[in-house]
Amino acid sequence: MTRGPGDASATPNACLRPGASLTVGAEGVVIELDPGQLRLGALDPVLVGAFERLSGGTSAAGDITDSILDTAGPVGLATWVGLLGRLAAAKCLEYRVSDGDRRVATGRPGPGYRPMASLPSQRLSLSRFAYLRPSETGMVLDSPLSTGPIEIRDPRAGIIVSSLATPAYPAELASSDRGCRWAVPLLHLLTDMGFALETDAEGATAETRSEVLGRWEFHDLALHGRVFRGRPDLPVGDTGRRGVARVPAMKPPMSGSWVDLPHPAADQGSGTLYETIDERRSLRAHGAPPITIAQLGEFLYTVARAREETDEPGIRRRVYPGGGARHPLEIYPLVGACEGLDPGVYRYDPARHRLDVLSDRGGLAKDVLRAAAAGMEDGRPPQVWLVITARIGRLSEKYEGIAYLLAHQEVGVLYEAMYLVATAMGLAPCAYGFVDGLGFARAIGVDPLEESAVGGFLLGSPA
Fold first, then answer.
1. Which helix (H) or strand (E) holds 72?
2. Looking at per-residue confidence, does 310 or 121 come out higher?
3. Is residue 426 very low, low, confident or very high in pLDDT (cuts 50, 70, 90)?
4. pTM value?
5. What per-residue confidence (pLDDT) applies to 179?
6. Does the pLDDT of residue 4 top 80, yes or no?
7. Please, what's the b/e burial string for 195-217 (b: 16 or more CB within 10 A of its CB; e: otherwise)?
8. What's the rounded Cα separation, in Å, for the pair 109 and 142?
9. Which pLDDT value is given to residue 260?
10. What percent of the chain has pLDDT over 90?
């Protein structure tokens, strides 16, 4: 494997993250985490030795890789790369670039990381979606397309990163006044984690040539990547880390004068829209028997079907409003329990009012459905989880800079329609917005940048 300037030692040090430790015993190799364990089982002694070096945290990643290749061959190397992917997915892998005892940069890869990129001899260019933000220890280099963030503690590393704003040869950066002995390991880290991209003769990268990425604005993809791509570094829940006072439930009056409004008549009649809105609640418990296919069909027909075709090219209006009637949203029922319908993953076809039966690639959709159990009172998976995706290109074709904003406004409109219809039908509705967009896209076999999760809705029979 060609490494460009330098040799195998001119790569970042590979190590376990703080809080993770290695145990080798009768059960094989086990990574102790906080909380839980990652059991890797019995491994070839060469790989066990590689993990011991990883645990020590002082070995260059390239040295470990070359040692495995020399003693265990390509098969051993492929096994090692797969194991590193598991460690990254479990949030326990770290790559460090140092200048003596001083830490220069630390990369923390997450799911999808595969450290196979070599340092190319041609020019590199910084991803147009990369950005720097301040942190408690310095700066963080991040991107919605990277496998994780890189913490930068040395300002000189920031200079090298900014130098990649225009295509530059790695050897150039390593030998110029901006370079230093850790420049090559830093470039390896930037390349492996998806920040520095190989260019062609015209200075274009695979990213700039991509039609799919060409539909995304920087600010839209930055937000989307932080929320829906399953990144491991985001705190979720009431962590109290900001240390600020709580926002009051009701904003206090803004002036000393006001006008009282008349209330509507007390008796609006049973089953009216007024009553349905008043009774709407988020119900996080499902009962027996489960929802039926007839109920699911009525629900989807009422909230999401497409209306009759019109003479407008490229337009097919639906029963709920959307920006420019572009309607980018798709609904995928993940069914755990539904009378008359097999458990599985489906796609609702709003034009034909039917369900496309999809294959669950590697059982990933089942994992996504099980993850929704966190939104249920009893901790069990919901009867039906409606995952909502957006084909962002439908909106960016017309609205560009506000495409992602409009997509989420439409999700809000669809949520309210789902709540009201489910309440009127006597079902248990609950919006549950957190979806592992990357995992779900893999489960149904779509490009997560072309169509990705933007919301979810739990549905079932009431407890």
1. helix 61-89
2. 121
3. very high
4. 0.79
5. 52
6. no
7. bbbbbeeeeebeebeeeebebbb
8. 11
9. 92
10. 52
Amino acid letter for position 224: H
List the structure tokens of 22: 């290695």
Query: Alpha carbon of 42 to those of 38, 240, 259, 345: distances in Å?
Result: 13, 41, 75, 35
**CA–CA gap between residue 146 and residue 230 (Å, rounded):** 12
Residue 350's closest CA among 314, 422, 416, 297?
297
pLDDT value for 7: 59
Tell the residue number behind the tokens 């479990």, with chain if given. Answer: 90
| Exposed/middle/buried for residue 35 (C-beta within 10 Å: 0-12, 13-18, 19+) | exposed
Side-chain half-sphere CA neighbours of 399 within 13 A: 18
Residue 175: alpha-carbon gap to chain centroid: 37
Q: What share of the chain is helix, strand, coil (3-state, %, to 5)?
A: 35, 20, 45
3-state secondary structure of 60: strand
* pLDDT at residue 240 in the model: 65
Average pLDDT, the chain: 87
Query: Scanning the structure block, which residue is given the tokens 């990277």?
Result: 146
- Residue 38 to residue 153: CA distance in whole angstroms: 30
* pLDDT in the model for residue 205: 93
Q: Which of 389, 451, 457, 448 lies closest to 427, judged by CA? A: 457
Instruction: Look at residue 207 and tell me whether its pLDDT is greater than 80.
Output: yes
Tell me the helices (H) and strands (E) count for the chain, helix number first: 14, 17
- According to the model, what pLDDT value does residue 273 have? 85
CA distances 312 to 315, 325, 329, Å, are 6, 10, 19
Phi, psi angle pair for 34, to nearest 5°: -125, 95
User: Is-contact 338 383, C-beta < 8 A?
Assistant: yes
Residues 438 and 230: beta-carbon distance below 8 Å: yes
Q: Which residues contact 138 (CB under 8 A, 6 or more apart)?
A: 151, 152, 153, 154
Q: Give the C-alpha separation, 191 to 126, whole Å.
A: 9
In the structure encoding, which two tokens stand for residue 252, read together? Answer: 């206090």
